[in-house]
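User: My instructor asked us to take a sequence, write out its structure as tokens, and then describe one feature of it. I'm not sure where to start. Here is the sequence I was given:
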Amino acid sequence: MNSESTRLRDPRYYWRVWLASTVMVGAIFLIPFALFFLIFNTQPALKRTILLNALPCAGIGLVLTALASTHAVRYLHNLIRQTAKALELAEIREHERDLAQQELIRKLQQERELERKKVQFEAQLAEYEKYAALAQLALGAAHEINNPLLGILSHLELELRDARNPEQRLEIEQCIQGTKRISSTVHGLLNYTRPTPLWLSQLNVQRLIDETLAFLCHQPLFRVIRLEKQIPADLPDISADANQLSQIFMNLLLNAAEAISEGGSITISAEKKGDDSIQIHIRDTGCGIPADILPHVFEPFFTTKRGKGTGLGLSISQAYARSHGGDIHIKNSPPHGTEVTLDLPVRPQDAPVLEDEEVVV
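Assistant: Let's start with the prediction itself. The structure tokens for your sequence are:
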């Protein structure tokens, strides 16, 4: 602490200033009275007394007044300077406090971001562990199922070649179709756990949807519901794997049909998003998905259809969409029902494309 601040804190300093100020006030009042009596009084003795006593005292008072004024001015100057320093210090402390608060907020945001990444990483790790277990199961199941299926399929084809009865041929053809579907499901499970390279070609989305609907419309589920399409004519062709994309449409449409009751409807629409992607929406008028179930619908083997589903349809569909560089999103569509959005790039990155070829599935 400097000497100026020490002096301002010393009580004797203020005592001297008070004494000098008192004398100054006394001198100010004394001098006018002395001058009045000196000028207007005619008694020589009184004038002599004033000259010998009052005027010297007034002079001393003036000197003390000057000293008191000097001390007072210096005191005010120091007080103003100390106040300015205090204000400046307060501003500095306030600025430091603001910086500390900003740093604290930044640290909290970083900690929140790290916690979010940690949760996301743990979720991905759990998902990878599921995929690893699923891959082992799929590899074993493929070997155990495909070999008997091959023998069954060969036998059915021989039976079909020798069959003459139309009803018998129809039954055999249905068995062949079911056998091929089992084989396709096993291959889909393998592709989900161990994706194969895409067989890309130019696809007309509207035609692919039409053909998928033509295949599904004969099933009993689709005979009691209404199907609506809102596909713009200028929707661009895309480069995609026709089999995988057809399987995505089939899974999404089957899920929508199973969720609605008789007289409900399914609306299929599409739109172009920018120059390099499209969106396909499938909306149904069903009961929707409960909020606690919605985050789990893409998990392998997760199903609410006890005894009817494997819980792999949406998982495989999402894997197929992501292998194209797209994704699938599901949300409840007010006032009721569910909306599934399929995002697909017009042309997947870093993938070969067979130009000028339109695939008909």
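For the description part of your assignment, you could build on this observation: Residues 44-162 form the longest helix (119 residues). Try explaining in your own words what that tells you about the chain.
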